Amino acid sequence: MGVGTVLFLFVVAVCGVCNGEVYKVGDSAAWTLIAHPDYNTWASSKTFRVGDTLLFEYDPQYHNVVEVSRSDFHTCNTAAPITTYATGNDSIIIRGIGHYYYVCGFVGHCEAGQKVDIRVAQSLHSAKIPIQAPNKPIAPKASPIGPIAPSPSPSSGESLVFRNGLFSCIVGLLIALVWVFN
Ligand SMILES: [Cu+2]
């Protein structure tokens, strides 16, 4: 395996953390009224970031997902939706920091607790790197950046470096640039 291939794989691995997490709303309970999941407790247990994905899974016969304003969220008014989702398997990418208010638009469901306030306070995933594959075949070359540092050991838990998506993205970008202009 050439150095270029190794670098490419490394960049892909590093930039994997830039793509954000996927949060299934309600976890195993999903988006429902059955057993009345507490979506506010669920949401407050997560740290949402820009670039993360919210996944709403539900039976579209009985539920949907309506993004509403803050005031409509509190009054369960779905007459002026920002966006309505109804596939039963909706992935919504968080576009910026702030609050996102989702309720079920079926009669009585929001009032019964099928509503969630997604608060996005951090934007570490916002720096995304467009990875462009080179057109020319990869020729093995001496690495100008020295040996690749080993990944942090899993036993030490999440390392600060890999928790910080932005830092990882910058490292990945630098490596990609070195590679491209090599
Ligand atoms: Cu519902």
What does this structure look like?
- By secondary structure, the protein is α/β, with parallel strands linked by helices.
- It folds into two domains: 3-18 and 126-180, no CATH class; 20-123, Immunoglobulin-like (Sandwich).
- It is 25% helix and 20% strand.
- It has five helices and eight strands.
- The strands form two sheets. A five-stranded mixed β-sheet has the order 2-8-7-4-5. It has a three-stranded mixed β-sheet with strand order 1-3-6, with no helix packed on it.
- The protein binds copper (II) ion.
Can you give me a brief rundown of this structure?
This protein is α/β, with parallel strands linked by helices.
State the main characteristics.
single chain; 182 residues; alpha/beta; Immunoglobulin-like; 2 domains; five-stranded mixed β-sheet; three-stranded mixed β-sheet; 8 strands; 25% helix; globular; binds copper (II) ion; membrane; glycoprotein; metal-binding
% residues in beta strands: 15-25%
Question: What's the count of strands?
Answer: 8
Element order, helices and strands?
Answer: HEHEEEHEEEEHH
CATH superfamily of the largest domain: Cupredoxins -  blue copper proteins
Estimate percent helicity: 10-25%
Query: What overall form do the CA principal axes indicate?
Result: globular
Mean pLDDT equals 75
The largest sheet, given as strand count, sense and whether it forms a barrel, is: 5 strands, mixed
CATH architecture classification name of the largest domain:
Sandwich
Provide the domain count. 2
